[in-house]
Amino acid sequence: xxxxxxxxxxxxxxxxxxxxxxxxxxxxxxxxxxxxxxxxxxxxxxxxxxxxxxxxxxxxxxxxxxxxxxxxxxxxxxxxxxxxxxxxxxxxxxxxxxxxxxxxxxxxxxxxxxxxxxxxxxxxxxxxxxxxxxxxxxxxxxxxxxxxxxxxxxxxxxxxxxxxxxxxxxxxxxxxxxxxxxxxxxxxxxxxxxxxxxxxxxxxxxxxxxxxxxxxxxxxxxxxxxxxxxxxxxxxxxxxxxxxxxxxxxxxxxxxxxxxxxxxxxxxxxxxxxxxxxxxxxxxxxxxxxxxxxxxxxxxxxxxxxxxxxxxxxxxxxxxxxxxxxxxxxxxxxxxxxxxxxxxxxxxxxxxxxxxxxxxxxxxxxxxxxxxxxxxxxxxxxxxxxxxxxxxxxxxxx
Length: 398
Hints:
Number of strands: 8
Strand order of the largest sheet: 1-2-3-8
Order of helices and strands: HHHHEEEEHHEEEEHHHHH
């Protein structure tokens, strides 16, 4: 039987007592307050800039910068525009962040494994390293490494490490591979190796999918590509008479080293400091990821006759990777953002170049927006790549 409304009682709940309507009204009111606050701040800022005759404009990007930049991966001189100088700063930040992420990852993995090693000396050295480095501010460490680099001897008395690495007060000179005149003869072998590796990877992935069983094809695909490239390397040497790529050793000349590649003391101190600092955190992430894998997995691997190295490489590490990647992404983002401390030791990164531009043009708002947009773009791209890789390593549940 249908319910009827008793006489004298309202047919429905009034809107001011309906929790759904109240929730919507509260959210609308909150949004209006936020918009009004931002509008007030924006109006106040624009009034101040108008009175100072500094209304925001990006027209300054086409004007000559007029200031030198000590390091640049692309040709640069003070006659270039502010926009070009900003691009140099972005490239310098990408260079130190890219190299730093690779080196910090390698060192962090070694530290994480050493922290769990049965060797007493290795385990305690790694523990002391982690506890000291991660508890000292990064800025202080950068000053330390920069001061140490300034204490290197003169170029003529450079510290020789193995004949391939030279430390001096102008920077670090390193042996570097250079393409010879016969590199073109080797290029087809490189393409052949790349195609063969890609083809092998695709075929194996299709086979794994058809057999409905897991498998790892990437290492064998890389090995095949490397084998073809190496074969072409030797054949090119036998046919052409010289290696397609040679290792160029730095040689001391009258005014400095020539050949190889020379990193300035500012760049070397920044890179070294970032790698040493970030690797301590990555080491702890790796250690916790390995310890999170069930002990039964290790015992099962041993029961199958796998060695300790095989157990770590084939059983433990692939499972730990699913735990390691999310916090590892945060460390990559931290390393990129921490590179802005380069301004303290004189390396012309993005933040340093932007600071000089701001001081000369007075365009604070556009310059700060450009810096924020640059760091945001780099961070989002890094997160996107790591999230894609994280999804690839996750277990596929039915």
